[in-house]
Amino acid sequence: MTDEHVPHLPAIDTTVPHSARVWNWALGGKDHFEPDRLLGEHLLKHYPEALNVARASREFLGRAVKALAVEEGVRQFLDIGTGLPTADNTHEVAQRYAPDARIVYVDNDPLILLHARALLTSNPQGATDYVQADVQDPDTVLEEAARTLDFEKPVALMLLSMLGHIDPDEAALLVQEYTRRLPSGSFLATCDSIDAPEMIKLNEDYAASGAVPYICRSEAQLAATADGLEILPPGVVALNTWRPEGPLEPTYQWGLLARKP
Ligand SMILES: C[S@@+](CC[C@H](N)C(=O)[O-])C[C@H]1O[C@@H](n2cnc3c(N)ncnc32)[C@H](O)[C@@H]1O
């Protein structure tokens, strides 16, 4: 059978590095192609202190989802810019502490759609769903997520290491648009690469490879995503200092957890 006979087969460009696949390489995964590996190896060689951002982000996911499920009683999660499935995806962490948790994953990369089955392994008491959509289209994201999530009840919006694909000022307005549409008691968890010189240079090399550029942000730009929300302790900080449960390497990945009053 040729591709033209396969309905809805997504087009996947394997000739240039791609965000989710380079990330997967950095996490020690297996879902990447040669251009992703070559770029990863280049970045590791030239910026050895910076490439732990992927691991720092996933570890933050674990601690933030645990805090949301256990301390805040959150049972609904909207994880946009999910990335390729790896160990401890959002539903696995959430349902470990709250078996009835409901999770909707959203990504615009067709490769994630192909791997989405690994994200749909919900505990029977809860639910998971996958939506192929662009974060910049909140109408579609929220409409499709409403198949699984009840938007009358609090939702944790997760935007982890993905807003750097969008202009920083537009990103803050976009997140505010989402949180404006979520009920009181909802949460925002977000993290991104901070604008340290080494991280800016790393992302210049990243963009020069032909990958969709990733834009670092200042602490103020990161905090602006939570405008109108209450940022919870310890604030907008490097992820290794965000409620660590053991010693963690210093990282240029910063983040925050905030609650909608
Ligand atoms: C660096 S990965 C981060 C994955 C995961 N959130 C994590 O922290 O491990 C960025 C992800 O965002 C997705 N992404 C990029 N631009 C997007 C957009 N406009 N809408 C939805 N997803 C997007 C990419 O496809 C990729 O899977």
User: What number is the mean pLDDT?
Assistant: 93
Structural class: alpha/beta
Kindly report how far apart the N and C termini lie. 54 Å
- Any idea what the shape is? globular
What portion of residues is helical?
25-40%
User: Segments where pLDDT lies below 50 for 5+ residues?
Assistant: 1-7
Number of E-type strands: 8
Structure in words:
It is built from nine helices and eight strands. Residues 1-7 have low confidence and may be disordered. Helix 1 (19-26) packs across helix 2 and helix 3 packs parallel to helix 4. It has helices at residues 19-26, 34-46, 53-71, 90-97, 110-114, 138-145, 168-180, 197-208, 219-224, and strands at 76-80, 102-107, 127-132, 156-160, 187-193, 230-231, 237-238, 253-259. The chain has 261 residues and is an alpha/beta fold. The longest helix is centred in the N-terminal third of the chain and has 19 residues, at 53-71. Strands 1, 2, 3, 4, 5, 6, 7 and 8 form an eight-stranded mixed β-sheet that branches. The structure holds S-adenosylmethionine. Residues 19-20, 23, 57-58, 80-83, 107-109, 112, 134-136, 160-162, 165 line the site of S-adenosylmethionine.
List the helices and strands and how they pair.
Blueprint: H1 19-26, H2 34-46, H3 53-71, E1 76-80, H4 90-97, E2 102-107, H5 110-114, E3 127-132, H6 138-145, E4 156-160, H7 168-180, E5 187-193, H8 197-208, H9 219-224, E6 230-231, E7 237-238, E8 253-259
The structure holds S-adenosylmethionine.
S-adenosylmethionine binds next to helix 1 and helix 3.
